[in-house]
Amino acid sequence: ATTHLFFIRTKADTLPARYAKAKAAIDRATSLEPDSPDVIRSLAYFYTYGIPDRTRQAEQLEKLLRVAPKDAGAFSFLSQVQSSDGRYAEALANGQKATRLDSRDAQVADSFYGLLRRGRRFAEATEARGRLLALRPPSDVEKHFFARMNFHATGSTREMEELAAQLEQQNPTSAETVRLRITVAIWRGDLIEAIRLDRLHPTPADAKPGNAPGFVNGDGAGDMALIYLNRGDAAAAQQRLGKFPAMLRADLEREPKNTRLIRYQAGVEAVLGHKELALRHAERSVELAPTPPVRLNAREVLAQVCAIVGEKDRAIAELTDLLRSP
Description:
Oligomer: single chain
Distance between the termini: 31 Å
Strand content: under 5%
Helix content: over 70%
Order of helices and strands: HHHHHHHHHHHHHHHHHHH
Radius of gyration: 21 Å
């Protein structure tokens, strides 16, 4: 059930069949062991991401904390729920409590690290990162996240460059190495170098994007299209998108309320010069956002789209307001 709900939560799959599988699994688990803390936690997860029901979610969370009052995972999950509700101070307190209850649980430590990073509490996030590294060796994905956090905290690309150099020794032409190099070039403002690298090893134009909140995530055709647009070459930007727009439109027909797909489509339409359509998609993404953090991501994309289509004052107003929120 938790695995199916992960696909739904990340918007990787929001088709009815996925919801049905999650429901069948959680019903089976509940029938087998209704008082198990793991089952109660999964049921709370279901009412958070599967079929959102605030009353039942609260009931399950209350039950979970009653049957497992010293369960670090329970307080960690409560912290995640509060963060999703935009209650950052409460989320922070319960995240801290979870790590105090079990300082050896890597999943709890990872969740708390993510909370601190999203809250831009970079000094504390760096400390939490150190504790997490002591619990488990970092995956390549985590190394990437750590390097990105260092950039957001300090503006330095050093860690990302070191990571790219390590990957380059292993495989200098791998897609991951090239994407990292392009990301570093973009962060340093060297768009000519980003284009040079992209032309040497182009990301397929029909590749699905990653799970970043916005259109620009440093690893795909959409990002490079924006680079070409910023260099004043609209034709090259549209060509670089390739099959990407058609693929997104087909996906959106199947999942018309998938906010992640709508955000990507807004960026694509902006690059294609379809101003009104781009703004409509971006505004719809904000309207459909299920939680405050997703709404912040959607508003970030709205700001990006406004900037691309020439609504600069509106873009600045959105960004100014966003910077006031953790």
